[in-house]
Amino acid sequence: MTLGPIGFAAPWLLVALVALPLLWLILRAVPPAPIRRRFPGVALLLGLRDEDSVSDRTPWWLLLLRMLAVAALIVGLAGPVLNPEPENAAADRDMPLLFVLDGSWASARDWPARRALLDGMMAEAGRQGRRVAVLRLTEPEAPVFRAAADWRSRLSGLAPHAWAPTRQMIETATGMLGAGPFETRWLSDGLDHAGRTGLLAALRDRGPVTVRESPRSVLALAPPQTNEGVLTLSVQRPRAGAAREVTVEAHGRDPAGAPRVLARLPVRMPAGETRATGELALPSELRARIDRFEIAAQRHAGAVSLGDDSLRRREVALIAGREDREGLELLSPLHYLEKALAPTADLLDGALMEVLPANPDAVVLADVARLSGAEQEALLDWAEDGGLLVRFAGPQLAASDVSRDEEAPLMPVRLRAGGRTVGGAMSWGEPKALAPFGEDSPFHGLDIPGDVTVNAQVVAQPDPTLSDRVIARLSDGTPLVTRKAIGAGQVVLFHVTANAEWSSLPLSGLFVQMLERLAVSSAVAQPEAGQLEGTTWQPVQVLDAFGQLDDGGTLPGVPGETLVAAPLGPDLRPGVYEGADRQLARNVIGADTRLAPVEWPADVPVTGLARPDETPLGGWLLALALLLLTADILAALALSGRLRPARATAALLAAALLVPAGDAAVAQGQGGGRAEGSAEARAIKATSEVVLAHVLTGNRKVDNTARAGLRGLSETLFFRTSVEPADPMGVDLETDELAFFPLLYWPVTPDQPRPSDAAYAKLNAYLRTGGMILFDTRDADVAGFGASSPNGKKLQSLARPLDIPPLEPVPDDHVLTRTFYLLQNFPGRYSGRDVWVEAAPPDAEKIEGMPFRDLNDGVTPVVIGGNDWAAAWAMDEDGNALFPVGRGYAGERQRELSYRFGVNLVMHVLTGNYKSDQVHVPALLDRLGQ
Amino acid sequence: MTGAASLRARAEADSARLPPLLARAEHLAGTVLLGEHGRRRAGTGDDFWQYRPVQPGDAYRDIDWRRSARSDTEFVRQREWQVAQSVMMWVDDSASMRFTSGDAIPEKADRARLLAMAAAVLLLRAGERVGLSGGRLPPRRGEAQKHRLAAALSQTGAAEYGSPDIRGLLPHGKALFVSDFLGDLDRVRDGLTAAADRGVRGIVLQVLDPAEEAFPYRGRTIFESMGGSLAHETLKADELRARYLERLAARKDELRRLCDATGWQYGIHHTGTSAQAELLWLYSAFEAEGRA
Q1: Is position A490 within any domain?
Q2: Tens-digit pLDDT profile for residues A563-591
Q3: Is the whole model's pTM more than 0.90, yes or no?
Q4: Are residues A181 and A259 in the same domain?
Q5: B211 touches chain A (CB under 8 A)
Q6: ipTM
Q7: A616 near A623, Cβ under 8 Å?
Q8: Residue among A31, A36, A641 whose CB faces B222 most closely
Q9: One domain for residues B136 and B276
């Protein structure tokens, strides 16, 4: 039943409203209950009569309140709903209802809206008593009609899949439909899927069909095309619409291993176009780190393009002919190659036969003349499978007769004996420069620096094929770099050495660029299905419909031919697959996928996903009833005199309104005041004297102890040394500046909050600029220092983001043992053994005759221990110790030693390694000897 | 729980109350400075009165040798004669005394005990003998009596309303009756007249809660006595106020008239006011009694 915009789930309950007048009569006759009150004076009251009897009837307004409460209760229980889902006039309301979902990746973007729509329609069906079934085309199951509430409870588990429905899936679904009749509502994703018309016809045979579809078209990203170092990214949409600007993000790991966006490429889609492309030129090192591209703010699998080996860092094996001149690094034939390739490629080292099974992308042979038969065969096999062999000439190659009379299989050209030398001491002519690269050369477009010259080279024999194979020449036309294809791979010969002996080419940036061009062209091409026959590929990571990567380790492997050719489905999910030696990505959108918009027949009604929110009012009305009943309680109390009006009202109002508002006001006042004046005053206070500081942990007791401890230490310093600190301060890591304090005392409690990243940045800056933090786990009485105690664990988690060098227990000759007092242990309230400081450099060695090693040049940034020093130092305002330490004289001695430790620590912070200075050795030796 | 164990538990609970009562009473008594009332003649006392030459019959141990050494004759040191009075107290421990109308206001019983105890401390300090009527504690002097008094005063009774217990009152002694006197007035009258007949004179102190004076109640109420044995229901409590106050005033007048007739002193104390002022009044009332 509906009443204006309000519908009722259980309208018959409203009949109960008739009972309200009856209630009025009953309630009216009952007076409020009396209060029982203890009163000794009752002896004097006995026998007194009331002069008149009033208020024996409930006042009318209290009655009204109660009636309203009951009315709200009744109406609330009748289940009123604001804006109920409008009923479809055309459809028969007794027909069961079938929801057809495409359930593909394209519906993942607005899945929450779809689910809300589905929920609303099911709720409506529930009110009408219609049975409901759901059919997902990506995972067809025979539709079972059930009560709507049953389905609604399962809605949250309904998720789209990362693939699109194939023709086969849709045909399966068509076969499962059953007899009917039923009404169909189709939640389409807006893309045309093969076989759809057949299903539509089958559905229309069984009842009316309506379609809900989002008017916003989905955006998809094709895999990037690599072309000479430039990545071409193309974005498409099924329907041409208004101009649109989208951003493609390249995600990957930064050198520290943290995932981040490595590059952003804005792509502008012109109005009326369905495709747009953008080009992204990235340094190859950056490019090698990319693991996926994503259209920003499009949360579905079609907007994600996973990268695979085509973006991967290349593996290059470097093989030198002979390296007998040990230690002459600049003359090593591989030195410049290593320098040039290390940033962009993974280098493999070792003998040729050992590295070839690792299937490197490229093998560089520097001045290798002779190859054994097995080596040559293996290299040939490898090159035919797509390997890139780069050879450099050199004295050995020039002296050998490889490829002299006939072309060797692993040489691009035949060579003349001996090579030639130009511009040397014993020859005529000037050193030769490079000629500009030809258009068909892979080096085309590279700038040639003027200072690149060639003194010596091996010379190619003129052959009919020579001119095709030359990709770089000298200014006099002599071939400098030649290339030959071998199967799917190729061999490239530089006619000069890989070091600077024959030419200055390896010294120039051009060398790096040339190698890069060559290596880029060596990137693996997408394999054909035939090549992969018989292989099995294991999913590493798979995409879900929302574009999130999941671990794919639990999924079964996929045959190679399926991986490349078969359509995506439950058995072949989009993701990254790993084969024997490489990784392949299977994306939702292939290089040649074209999105096609769906065209519905004109007589099928199509509407958007939006619908007015159906608001159940029952809860509000029940809450109102409760509120009224609460008011009734108060009113009844007030009537019977148990509620003192002034006080009670004030208390109620305070409870209901003033407390939160008041708190906020107070907090605001404090915050504002603090922000303005106190930061500056605090800075002045902290810098006009030496001030020790402790980190505020949020635990009042610990903070007070730390403060009292530092006060005690400051007093001690004042008395005994020329350090005269002012009152210590508590430091809030989030808000306060740390740079003013030489020493931060940080008591560790298990429950203190972890500082924010900004606070850690501040702390690290503090440590790097010479600050010191004294961590105190305060549990040396119960735990040896380590991670076993709760405080120790908390310390580990607190200190993990800090930039802390390796630590060691304080060595006997650490400067901390003698900055002011000569100490060998560092007790606080407890006398635990281990106190940790920055480790000595590994090369610090004890020199005979010297008592101390020459240790760190600086202040240890952290001191870690658990002796609860603050408690031992703690003093009240009058200088009395606040906590007992040990017992009797031994305890007082321990307290004294803890003060001495504090003095030494502050001296260490303030004077650094001054006491490491060997000038003091004789005096110290003298005293140590006593 | 065995009888002994429960007795011990109760004893511990009671004794936990003791030191505070005694301490508070001592504290209160400390605000009043006084001396012992010397009789201005030689007698048994602590204070020096005079030296007199030895007369026959004096024991050697009475001779003050130090004084005698300074002259040729022997002297006996005489002390001032001090007499002690016996003050018997009756402090109402009935249920009605345990009433209080607010968190900040002490129970009437609490205040009554405190005043009685403080008065007892003062009296003991003055060398009087103090006890409790009804045979609960015979009058004695000395420090230990304070503790006995505090222990006896800390007990609570079960009766709904109290009436003066005149058993054990020494003839011609002094007495202090502390109660709210809201119970049966006839028994109060009987008690007072019987005491007066024995020559006992003293003070009647009525302790009332501010609520009992103001009657600040409204609306439909059932008033119950503290023990729950009496009840009175009214539909409009505020209408009763005038008549209640009238009856209360009548009762006060009756008490005052009784006291005048028997020669006792009548005082009224409200628990909402300071105990110290009341103690001063009590003290001066005892002084007046002492002179009379």
Answers
A1: yes
A2: 777 788 888 888 888 776 567 788 888 77
A3: no
A4: no
A5: yes
A6: 0.73
A7: no
A8: A36
A9: yes
